[in-house]
């Protein structure tokens, strides 16, 4: 399928915006997937999802590298969490054919509203300077959270980065910035798990995906620097904004 110049411009611009959004808080798929399907009306949904996943994993990985290098959270532990989440994401992608999205949306809407309410009424959450507390039950809780969120990313996906940031902040009693750095690494792993399943199924549009990946990386690098410059307050506001946008988006899909 040949694309016109205007289509390329819209898709590349959208991929850059999605990369920025993913790097700041997550949820870039809410930008790029609908855009791909709108600009290329004949594209199969699986192809749109797979091509977006290729772009997303590239941008998220680049943002993870930038944040990890600057914030320096515990690398060994983060990679272990990423491995568990990546495996769970692959399993979730395989299970996606057995579960209807209509059953997932109400649950996610409730979780989003709970997250938004908690963050809104507890301004101090995730804003301290603590390096966090590790070991004991926290390690097991983080592994369980990553397995569950990884599976969710494979089977449904929207808001994965946000759920990871909230989980790491709560479990390790650390600030949003350190949690965001860890979340980007783990989210890269979940994207890889899902992408592997799409590649095996032959759903990736490689020419488009590689081009979108380059644009996504550019947006992600800008987003990572935005996070580092804006600090925990920016991440908090971005999280609350994402809660509102995702809740409205999912509610519209579910009931209208």
From TrEMBL:
Name of a matching Pfam family: TauE
InterPro entries per UniProt: TM_pro_TauE-like (IPR002781), TSUP (IPR052017)
Subcellular location per the Swiss-Prot or TrEMBL entry: Cell membrane
Keywords: Cell membrane, Membrane, Transmembrane, Transmembrane helix, Transport
UniProt topology in membrane: Multi-pass membrane protein
One CC-aspect GO term: plasma membrane
Coiled-coil residue spans: none
Main location: membrane
Domain of life where this protein originates: Bacteria
Annotated transmembrane regions: 28-50, 78-97, 103-121, 142-172, 192-214, 234-252
Family named by the database record: Belongs to the 4-toluene sulfonate uptake permease (TSUP) (TC 2.A.102) family.
This protein's name: Probable membrane transporter protein
UniProt organism field: Corynebacterium stationis
